Model the fold of this input.
Amino acid sequence: MDEEIDTRKINNSFLRDHNYATEADIISTVEFNPTGELLATGDKGGRVVVFQREQESKNQPHRRGEYNVYSTFQSHEPEFDYLKSLEIEEKINKIRWLPQQNAAYFLLSTNDKTVKLWKISERDKRPEGYNLKEEDGRIRDPTTITALRVPVLQPMDLMVEATPRRVFSNAHTYHINSISVNNDYETYMSTDDLRINLWNLEITNQSFNIVDIKPANMEELTEVITAAEFHPNQCNTFVYSSSKGSIRLCDMRASALCDNHSKFFEEPEDPSNRSFFSEIISSISDVKFSHSGRYLMTRDYLTVKVWDLNMESKPLETYQVHDYLRSKLCSLYENDCIFDKFECVWNGSDSVIMTGSYNNFFRMFDRNTKRDVTLEASRENSKPRAILKPRKVCVGGKRRKDEISVDSLDFSKKILHTAWHPSENIIAVAATNNLYIFQDKIN
Amino acid sequence: MFPKGTKRKFSDSGDEPAVGGEDMNQPSSVAVRMLSSYSLQRQALLDMSLIKLQLCHMLVEPNLCRSVLIANTVRQIQEEMTQDGTWQIMTQALSAANAAAQCSAERLVATEVLCRQTEAAQGEQVPKPFPAVGSEGCPAEEEEEVVVEEEEEGEGGVTMSTVSSQAPTTYLPGTFGMDPCWEEETEEDEDSEECGSGSEEGDSDRLVEDSRTAEQVFGTFEIKNPAPSPDPALEELFSDVDASYYDLDTVLTGIQSVPKMGPYDLLESLSSHGPSPLSSSTSCRSDLNELDHIMEIIVGS
Done:
């Protein structure tokens, strides 16, 4: 794949050195908009940066639509919950775009507790020639006004402004892990560890609780919700995944409270692989419907699974992401890496799936050819516009040149968030505080 | 962590595998060693999990999913240990241990030494404020009270609240560290509301601490009815030193050195944050050190 690196530029004045990764710059979510023209990233410091694809120009065909910064804004601020004496992190957990209905763009961004609807709009004209004030804003002395004029719109430099249009707050006791916009484009759902709430995009002071798995006695809590998503085509259907490795599909037409699932997807445990960590590694960190709506993809710690919605007993396909970690689970438990939540994505045609791993590696699986590849998102190991070289991790025994042994993997360099353009082969990969954008090589 | 130099003794107790015992024949000693290694691994995992549960961020709510997964792991280990019978031994030893510890000044000195050593280990750790099991660090449920099942412990063992699915005679520290992480303690003064501790009876062992978080940690190690006199056989057991224990940890965890933190480290950090501990807390701290020490020896050996 041809590689273009689009490293985020830090504009804040307190940062001197671009190489020094402050925690606030760690990217926590990446999402293309429905047309792929825009790419939004959220970070741990509560900021959202939106990139826009350049118009393709005939003069420079090889610079096929690069992404440049379009807008940057502070979406969430750190808050303090006085009642519980706890800080509420401003880290953006998820961003979801709304389909475009007019000239402005809308996206939902959420931290642990509050969802916000942001409007991003362009302004390239401004009115000039007011009667009551000067161009610089000073009020004119009324006695000096002798004639009236009609203000005229004059062109100005393009300005992109982001304004918060709705704030959906105070609906979640636990931490929000997912948001998903419904196909009806009127409602969306927000999911925390124990509950799922349904919102109308226009109404901020109430939401409906549609799933509640909180036990009456919290001592009995053994399972939490880890992710949820609406079906892409059926506005009444959604799925949610759990920390025990199961997925429940619910139909909102069945009842107001969807505690009873319509379908229950779970793979029976393999007794030969049983260990104390079996449950932890079966916890699903991400669930995504295919674009067609026919399949479901789930990511647990070591694998990615594709499920057919019509078959609940076992997944259709299972792909090993980094099975060589199976023997290292105790160490990974000790350093907490076993709790890392990797995401997974489909390509536009649902033929390829992608997910991240450690050491800045990410993996792609072609469902048709059954081939897979491991690539690396790093500045040191690849130059801009160079084709990415496939990587290999060697498990034991002889290590060939270019291979990396399991023990040399850097577990602090994890790729948790990736995104795939809705129709083209362009991917965005977040590696800690850097964003990489890769696209297919053109001949 | 353990005073070195004490020779291991062949254990008289039939429940404990005697590694390196002279009168065991070869094949079974290998099996026994493997079994014991598994037990050690399991114990190490249990300790690690308990520490993870207790380390909550003071300022930010910890991840509920992570806490639930760790708690489930702890429960799973405990279930296994209960089936093995190891759990019974441990809790019985704990009750006797506490009684023994109270009477022996020597042991108190030894644990003071332990405390100083572990301070060095603590220094390597990421400095985080620990409310230990405090509700402050955990997602709270407003107006929710911890429903603690109080188990009367006839032998004076450690009182811990049980998960309803368990048989009444098994004692699980399963709830300490876990429940407070999910719920807010609304009753500070009521002893019976302490997570995992059951009702108090004005024990001399009980720590007097204003920080509720400390109470919850200590409460789990509370002894309700200490046995009157120490058992000489048990004392012999206590003098065993399991030197292999700390090697196991480094082997298991591989890459980095585990800062071996037990509840006594938490106590130290708590006292450094909270108000100055009263004198009774120091003796109880030693008791807790001793308890942990004993627990590790008994189960580990």
Observations:
- The radius of gyration of chain B is 19 Å.
- Chain B touches chain A at residues 42, 45, 48, 52, 59-61, 63-66, 68-69, 71-73, 76-77, 136-137, 139-142, 144, 146-147, 161, 163-164, 175, 178-179, 182-184, 252-256, 258 (CB under 8 Å).
- DSSP finds ten helices and no strands in chain B.
